[in-house]
Design goal:
This protein is an alpha/beta fold. It has a single domain, classed as Ribonuclease Inhibitor (Leucine-rich repeat, LRR (right-handed beta-alpha superhelix)). The chain contains 11 helices and 8 strands. An 8-stranded mixed beta sheet has the order 1-2-3-4-5-6-7-8. Helix 1 packs antiparallel against helix 2, helix 2 packs across helix 3 and helix 3 runs antiparallel to helix 4. The N and C termini lie far apart (57 Å).
Length: 252
């Protein structure tokens, strides 16, 4: 019989924070990081002490200590960063030029210590490489919230794979019926709690496609779709899908 490998207390706290964003756990974790000389602890402790001005100044002057070679993206592709108790929990990545691949940025960001607690991610104008990079270790398996805007269904192919922690998914695309087809057999759909399928305009095929696969989506607590209130499939959809919410057809 061999002994189990030892788990460092800070690793245990990190796993606890990934599972639940708790203020006291975050405080202990920040103190531990600071004592170990981890730069993440410096910013977190300032934030937790309520020194918001000092924390903002620290981030403005020392962003490269957290983001390394990807610091330039903080003011460009990383269009929104969501912090909680001084730790990065959510990221929005937006393409600034149509020919800019997002995959390398996502891979680089995922490898940084500052991203180890990220559980929420939004992709604006995702290309084919973006979701592939996001799905990979170490970030993909711990994502709980995911929002994706994409022009084509091809860019959303990785949604058909398993995202084991994902419970909330929002997809904005002109090809939503194809996304329904892709999600219906996906293992990810089985543990989703909420799903938004928005097109930006009423889709004539969405209702019929969704009705064909209604059994696969029936467990969802919330299913928001872009349909006209006059869609002929709507009465049947309401019977089959208790969590259905009909959007007026415009992206929000």
């Amino acid at each position: 019989m061999t002994d189990s490998p030892l788990v460092h207390p800070l690793d245990e706290l990190e796993l606890a924070l990934i599972a639940r964003d708790d203020a006291e756990t975050a405080r202990v974790f920040a103190d531990g990081l600071l004592a170990r000389g981890d730069v993440r602890g410096e910013f977190a402790v300032l934030t937790q002490r309520g020194e918001s001005g000092l924390a903002r100044a620290w981030l403005a002057n020392h962003a490269e200590r957290l983001f390394g070679p990807w610091t330039h993206a903080v003011h460009h592709e990383l269009s929104e960063l969501k912090w909680s108790h001084g730790f990065l929990r959510g990221v929005t990545v937006a393409r600034r030029r149509s020919d800019t691949p997002l995959g390398p940025l996502i891979e680089g960001l995922a490898a940084l210590p500052v991203a180890r607690l990220v559980t929420s991610f939004a992709l604006e104008d995702a290309g084919p490489d973006a979701l592939v990079a996001l799905h990979a270790e170490p970030l993909g398996p711990r994502l709980v919230h995911l929002k994706v805007r994409a022009r084509s269904a091809g860019a959303l192919e990785p949604l058909g794979r398993d995202w084991p922690a994902l419970t909330h998914l929002s997809v904005h695309s002109a090809e939503v019926p194809a996304i329904v087809e892709r999600l219906a057999p996906s293992p990810t759909l089985r543990h989703l709690q909420s799903l938004a399928l928005l097109t930006g305009f009423p889709d004539r095929d969405l209702g019929a496609t969704l009705l064909t696969h209604a059994t696969a989506f029936a467990h969802l607590r919330s299913l928001r779709v872009s349909l006209l209130t006059t869609d002929p499939t709507l009465p049947s959809l309401k019977r089959e899908l208790p969590g259905l919410f009909v959007d007026d057809g415009w992206l929000t």
